[in-house]
Amino acid sequence: MEKFYNEDFLKQLQRLSLRTKKLKAGIQQGERRSPRKGHSVEFADFRSYSLGDDVRYIDWNSYARSEKLFIKLFVEEQDLLLNIFMDTSQSMDWGQPSKSRLAKQIAGAFAYMALSAYDQVAIAACSEHLYSYQPPLGGRNALRKVWGFLDALPVIGSTRLSDSIKEFGPFSRRPGVSLIISDLLSPHDFKEGLKYLQYLKQEVILLQILAPDELSPVLHGDWRLLDSESKEIREISINTALLKAYEKKIREFTAETREFCHRRGMAFIQICSDELLEDIILRSMPRAGILG
Amino acid sequence: MEFFNPSAFFFAVIIPLIILLYLLKRRYQEMLVSSTYLWEQVLKDMEASMPWQRLKKNLLLFLQLLAAAILILAFSRPYLPVPGDSDRHIIVVLDCSCSMMANDISPSRFAEARKEIENLIDGLGKDDEMSLIAMGEEARVLASASRDRLMLKKALQDAQLSCGVARPEPVLAIIASLAEDAGNVSVIVFSDGRTAPVEDEFLLDCPLEFRRIGRDSDNLALTALAARQEARQMILMARLHNYGNEERKTELKLQAGEALLDVREISLPPGESREIIWEDLDPGNEAFIKASLSRSDVLMLDNQAYAVLEQRDNRRILLVSQANVFLEKSLLLLPGVELYKTSTQDYEEGMDDFDLYIFDSFLPTALPRGNILLLDPPVSNSLIPVKGEFTGIKQVKPVDNQPLLNYVDLNDWQISKCRQVEVPNWCRPLLQYQEVPLLLVGEKDNRRIAIFTFDLHNSNIPLQTGFPILINNLGSWLLPASSNTLILDASQNYFSLPKMTDIDNESIIIQKEGEAEQEFQAPFPDKFPAMAPGLYMVKQADEETPFYYVLKKLNGLESDINPGELSWKQAFAQENEEKLRLSKKEIWIFLAWMAFLILVLEWEVYRRGY
């Protein structure tokens, strides 16, 4: 994976971090503000002293003023769990340039960012099932392992995102951020899966990758289209009217997905596989409020 | 809009075929795609919205259907009646019959007609077409829808006069077919109006212009000349007719070879005919008599006539009978016969130089070579099986209309007793009573045979007026004339020599009377030409006397040269000024261009992929 990224890009990545809408409760101490109160230097609140509290946190100035004992609470900085769901179905291996390659680059970049911030990263490979899962790893040392896992992911099966995510349920230990990278081109519904992730207290980021030929195909005449996943054949006579209808359809599909995500408080971004990784990570993502 | 070729609308079946082609499966290229999910959605949306949307929105299909419809319309050759006299098709009919030889217009009616047609050819417009038809015994198309003036003039020069009648029916049939496809057709007939009548009904949708050629009707014609040998006497009959409007006088001259037999001054009132009979002529050894009129008139061809004299001996008849007076008397009435009688007992087999044998209630075992008339066949004979007898015949009926029974009155013919015979294959009954044959005729072993199945004495027939007529008819049939003369009518232009002629010379000479000899070398053609009317004599090269005469006659109708109106004018559309000025403008070229442009447009649509 290293070959995908140059030094400058990695340095820039270090300056970025995932923008989470809500604070997520972590397990280990990290760099990220946590909803829990802890022992960092950042003051958070007061509360009445109760027996057993650490006397070092008694605010003596308040006691001087009110003769009541108050305990100073500080924000606890904890780590964040980033779950990356990679669509590894055969449709991701299609297009020029390949969608799966860009998907792995983006996932790698996100993992780098997370691990650099002492967050934890878990990776789930989805096709018809959740066929491979990398449990959460933390620390910069885990980077090589995460990249290695991403590198080794094969392209296999068809897309059943909801089923795969539901199979992920038992592995979900705590709230976190879930990044789903897929082309979403499947007759099987993906929305249930996204809703389930929210149920698992995950902040959902949906990243749709489409090849240029999927966004605006350059075809004309009579074609027998072979579905790369289902191997089904569809005979079709493509003319300008049909192409227009297709483009309209894909716009509708995108708009509907965007609407769904917006309504459910999920982040959604559609990218084309011919876009540059730097543009996506350093410009598109911050603009969409995903990175900051 | 009307159509020259409405049958082209059958091509409209191509339109459903084009639609069918669009419904048929196409040849597809194969391609792997990430997912057909969105394509499925798109197609579902399009098909669900309207079932016929694909077909309706297919611009290529629409253009192809339009091009096909326009092409079919072009094939049907629609035309619009447009004002103007352009693109005329003039059909010129030239009368080539004998009456056009009349020289009342110098040099002849035919030459005058040709001159007028030449002027017409010179006056043809650039787009005008002309067809030339020669009208004689048959119709001949000299030129068909031609714009080439030189070719038309050459075709006109090729037109030949014939001595036949002008028959309009074949000409009308040709005009009908020529006018069927053409636009602005008009017919001009150059004739003296003397044509055969039209019996079939014709209705042509084109106007007729009749240019009458001829002024005068001054023609005195020899319409018939016939000679008959009776015993030692020759009887000659000539008939003259004055077709003119004034009384005419002429000299009628009879010649036998170089010898002048008679000259008569004859005066005939207009429209009358006269028959002249000579009974005391002696032509000597000459074979024919020529009659000629001295006075010149506008048609000279009918001013002479020929009669060939038959050089024949009397035919010999042998009557083998006990006694049959009625039969004897009737036989003696036959012209040119010699009757010999013998009894059944005296008949010998060696008697075989007779032309006709009449056996009465008797038949020898070995039949002689000549023709046979058998009366009352004996019970066992070699000719016809006799089964028994039949009595009481009160009414004799003819079997069909037989020429041998012409003028024979069968009323009151009664027969008390007759033989009941079985009709053999070679003969047929002429008279019968309730399926019982009474008179049979037929041919067997090259002889003509007639059989009365009854004895004349057992009937009242010899007393009836029809009997001698019946015997005369039978006699003519049983004693056929062996003539050396062939009569050709005006429509026959060729003759053949008789089959039995023994020609032992390498060449024969045919000479038309008054003209030069023509020599033919063996092998001889099947047919020899005889175009002009007159007498043709055929002889072997080393012999003086002709062995065969061919007399070609004129058609009597053609002697009447009085120029008149066409009797078949009503077959044509009445001349209508407005109709004449309307020409039929074809628009198929415009339609073909339109179809071509649509095809180009269709190609462009296909290329751009609309």
SSE layout and pairing:
The complex is a heterodimer of chains A (292) and B (610).
Chain A lengths: L6 H9 L13 E20 L11 H7 L3 E9 L2 E7 L11 H18 L3 E7 L3 E9 L4 H9 L9 H8 L7 E7 L8 H9 L2 E9 L1 H4 L5 E7 L5 E6 L1 H24 L3 E6 L4 H11 L5
Parallel strand pairs in A: 3-4, 3-6, 6-7, 7-10
Antiparallel strand pairs in A: 1-2, 4-5, 8-9
Chain B lengths: L1 E2 L10 H10 L5 E5 L3 H13 L3 H4 L2 H17 L2 E6 L4 E8 L13 H14 L6 E7 L3 E8 L2 H10 L9 H14 L2 E8 L12 E9 L7 E11 L2 E10 L5 E9 L2 E10 L4 E6 L9 E6 L10 E5 L6 E6 L4 H8 L4 E6 L13 E5 L10 E5 L10 E8 L3 E2 L16 E7 L5 E7 L2 E9 L2 E6 L13 H13 L6 E4 L5 E2 L11 E6 L4 E5 L6 E2 L4 E7 L7 E5 L19 E2 L3 H5 E5 L1 H21 L2
Parallel strand pairs in B: 4-5, 4-7, 7-8, 8-33, 16-17, 16-18, 18-19, 19-25, 26-32
Antiparallel strand pairs in B: 1-3, 3-34, 5-6, 9-10, 10-13, 11-12, 11-14, 14-15, 20-22, 21-23, 23-24, 24-25, 27-30, 28-29, 28-31, 31-32
Helix pairs in contact in B: 1-4, 4-11, 5-6
How would you summarize this macromolecular structure in one to three sentences?
The complex is a heterodimer of chains A (292) and B (610). Chain A has 292 residues and is α/β, with parallel strands linked by helices.
